[in-house]
Amino acid sequence: xxxxxxxxxxxxxxxxxxxxxxxxxxxxxxxxxxxxxxxxxxxxxxxxxxxxxxxxxxxxxxxxxxxxxxxxxxxxxxxxxxxxxxxxxxxxxxxxxxxxxxxxxxxxxxxxxxxxxxxxxxxxxxxxxxxxxxxxxxxxxxxxxxxxxxxxxxxxxxxxxxxxxxxxxxxxxxxxxxxxxxxxxxxxxxxxxxxxxxxxxxxxxxxxxxxxxxxxxxxxxxxxxxxxxxxxxxxxxxxxxxxxxxxxxxxxxxxxxx
Length: 258
What we know:
Blueprint: H1 2-5, E1 12-16, H2 21-32, E2 36-40, H3 44-54, E3 60-62, H4 70-81, E4 89-92, H5 107-135, E5 142-147, H6 161-181, E6 186-193, H7 202-215, H8 224-235, E7 246-249
Parallel strand pairs: 1-2, 1-4, 2-3, 4-5, 5-6, 6-7
Helix pairs in contact: 2-8, 4-5, 5-6
């Protein structure tokens, strides 16, 4: 019974930005837990490479798409409907950042970052609703998992003005959607990662990974299994009664002085 709580056998998932970094960690975890996973990102070759890698662990297919525009979201869902008539899990992982000094911070950064980190998860979730409703049940709801960040509830030295603001907005969007969709047996939760190895963090890690490790109460940065574990939990029956939550996965980093 305990293992069944965390099994994703028979479930179908869509992971945006799933071809690299945290998205790939999540995709691998869902595949290994038994889900059929559609990995999506803008670059078709990256999708194909990720799907080929993950197919060694289970059922995974590439489904390229650009969720940064409503037209791109519509095209992705149309392609998804060619493969399935229901969706148990959608992971809104695609995102971007933009760091620049305060007085040089461009207006275009706000449009790009808020568009992909806030509008895109909203648009994709709404577009997925018919598929999520088809999969949802009282005993085991359909799941929306958003990717936030600990930067959404604390400040850091990095001048990521639009990014940090967008993640705070993402966290609150999760709460709003959770309240609206709970009666339809669809849960909405957010994972708020601390420092993990990813493309976005590559430069930071190259320059000062040791600083992040020293500042973390657990003395390390996140690893793939840390991200896979929380994603499996939020996608599985074990979390059926949890919605509207923002869960920090950071080794206590957000509790430490910085």
